Amino acid sequence: MGYDVKIERNLLHALFDLKGSVEDVSSYLKEHIGSIPVEPNSYVTYGNLRVLYLGINHWILLAPIDEEQKLLELLKPEFCPASISIVLISDTLKFFRINGANADDIMAVASPLNLNADAFTNNSATFSEVFGLKALIMRHGDGYQFGIDQSFGDMISDYLDLTMAR
Amino acid sequence: MLLINCPFCKERNETEFVYGGPVGVDRPDPNAVADQEWVDFLTLVPNPTGPVFEKWWHARGCGEWFVICRDTVTHEILESPDEKS
Fold it and tell me: What's the pTM?
């Protein structure tokens, strides 16, 4: 009996790394996108954009890869205030989506993070571990999405196959 | 396995963290001390019995550095940093 999951592999997203004080980043993003999330390790959604609050003075803006150019023109990283930093990092992470009835079981093997619904809610996003690697984990539909250093994409794909005993 | 309370992410598995050494160890001037003393500073980690304040780095999480007080006998974490946001 196998796991009832659907896995999408090696996906790319448009990613912008934002650093600066809460006041400065909030003010700049509010002007161009919307309010930033307040709760640590959570995200807010604007259409198909997500703003993730991942560390003290650290956010990531995540969007479909085909919106990368549009966001570059909108955010203008080279002209943003000197007090904040906006860096395009789309090519640093590859994402995997695990959906289905047994998505929790696969993630329980892959990550030590407490993924119970009361600890990792629908709008949670955080850096943690997947198969021992630093990973950006968030909920996606009835399952999860996680991003890992792009150079480990094929390795993680193999690990997922092993986990599912393929 | 330790569960360490990160000031940003709250309770997380020990494997997400990197030990950063004890707090308050004075760094000697490498030009003013003997080679052996400098090598000892770099390689010998003090490991006293009982409560010790030590630095930890949430390397596979939010990236925050913080200080906890841990009992080296029981591994009980006696003091954690306050939550920050």
Answer: 0.89
- Residue pLDDT, tens place only, A80-116: 999 999 999 999 999 999 999 999 999 999 999 999 9
Instruction: Return the CATH architecture of domain A6-11+92-163.
Output: 2-Layer Sandwich (3.30)
Residues of B in contact with A54 (CB under 8 A): 62
Architecture of domain A13-91: 2-Layer Sandwich (3.30)
Domains of chain B by range and CATH?
3-79 (3.30.2270.10)
CB distance A74 to A61 below 8 Å = no
A103-110 vs A153-163: helix crossing angle, rounded to 10: 120
Model confidence over B10-69: pLDDT tens digits? 999 999 999 988 887 788 999 999 999 999 988 887 788 999 999 999 999 999 999 999
* Residue A131: partners with Cβ closer than 8 Å, 6 or more residues away: A110, A111, A156, A159
Answer whether A34 touches B (CB < 8 Å). Answer: no
What are the chain A neighbours of B85 within 8 Å (beta carbons)?
38-40, 56
